[in-house]
Design brief:
- By secondary structure, the chain is an alpha+beta fold.
- The protein has a single domain, classed as Roll (Thiol Ester Dehydrase, Chain A), CATH 3.10.129.
- Strand 4 and strand 5 form a beta hairpin.
- The chain is globular, with a radius of gyration of 19 Å.
- The N and C termini lie far apart (63 Å).
């Protein structure tokens, strides 16, 4: 007999994919009329959190943004489209990939401007980690992203260990 606690919850990538659109205004831009990088990071974090929360069906918090590429500038007046997908789910965390594009509405084409990988953790109201559903990949593209996420996690784990060891060796006043 299978108990409720023995059931494994699964969700497909498509069930949690998220999209966000923004028109870029002068208040969002620097003196050259380009979108501030920090504002783009905010939009990326928001759409990533939407995908993670949909997958977990819970509150999620950003644990890391370990890779962010600014491929091309985003200008005042541009229509920015951000798309997020859960790449892989672990026990309480998920890697989410976000792609940002500018839409040329006249030509009806998209131009890639940025990509990022973020890690989110599902939490309860007290901030304790919650187990998230396993991810079901259906397409070859989703399967590749799933495998790539595993390799990135290994690299992140190695880097976290390296930094922890480095901090342990620091003497008081190292920052002066």
């Amino acid at each position: 007999m299978v108990g409720m606690s023995d059931l494994v919850i699964q969700r497909t990538v498509a069930e949690s994919q998220s999209e966000r659109s923004e028109i870029i205004f002068p208040a969002d831009a620097n003196a050259l009329g380009n979108l501030f990088g920090g504002r783009l990071m905010q939009y990326i974090d928001l759409v990533g959190a939407m995908a993670a929360s949909r997958h977990a069906r819970a509150i999620t918090v950003t644990a890391s943004m370990d890779h962010l590429d600014f491929v091309a500038p985003v200008h005042v007046g541009d229509l920015l489209i951000l798309k997020a997908s859960v790449n892989r789910a672990y026990r309480t965390s998920m890697e989410v990939g976000v792609k940002a594009m500018v839409e040329d509405v006249r030509e009806q084409c998209l131009k890639h401007v940025s990509s990022a990988y973020l890690t989110y953790v599902a939490v309860d109201q007290q901030g304790h980690g919650l187990v998230v559903p396993q991810l079901v990949t259906e397409t070859e593209h989703q399967k590749r992203r799933f495998e790539d996420a595993g390799r990135r996690r290994e690299m992140r784990s190695d880097e976290i260990l390296r930094r922890k060891e480095m901090r342990a060796k620091l003497k008081p006043g190292w920052y002066v």
